Amino acid sequence: MAPGLNGPDIRLPNEQAVLARMRGTQDRVADAITEFSGTMTFVYLHAAWFTVWIAFNEGLFGRAAVWDPYPFGLLTMIVSLEAIFLSTFVMVSQNRQAIREKVRADLDFETNVRSEVWSAHIGHALGIDARQIEQEVQTFLAQNQARMNGTTANSTKTNGPTANGTGQPAPSGEPID
Length: 177
Description:
By secondary structure, the chain is mostly helical. 64% of the residues lie in helices and 0% in strands. It has helices at 15-22, 25-37, 40-57, 73-126, 130-149. Helix 2 (25-37) packs across helix 4 (73-126). The chain is elongated, with a radius of gyration of 30 Å.
């Protein structure tokens, strides 16, 4: 049955939709905190906060304004706790990024399998010899790998038409898509 209104839905799931279904309130909060803590605004706010804290506690506004005298034990504790929580939020976001990458990889794999199956069926319907095409693909892959490694591949001559229509593998200077 042909795809359409009455046919089967053979579309892949949308990556963003899959990820949105997996994302809860806690994940959104962790991502927002991590996103903000990675900005220069965050750095400027902390620099200003530390400056004001130290100025007050060094007695620049009078001895009555001092609440955390040197060596600033309260400030040290607060900054340590903040570092613990920020590192936890970063790890949560990194775990979510790993999940996103896995979803993408799974969808890419499914797309590749679908493409391969469709190509095989279309090739069979057109009467194309799959073994010859696979040999040409292997030749192209070997040439491309050799080019990436900075070496030359032994090109093998094939029988019959190829992707470039000459009956031979693509020259080494020709890009392979």
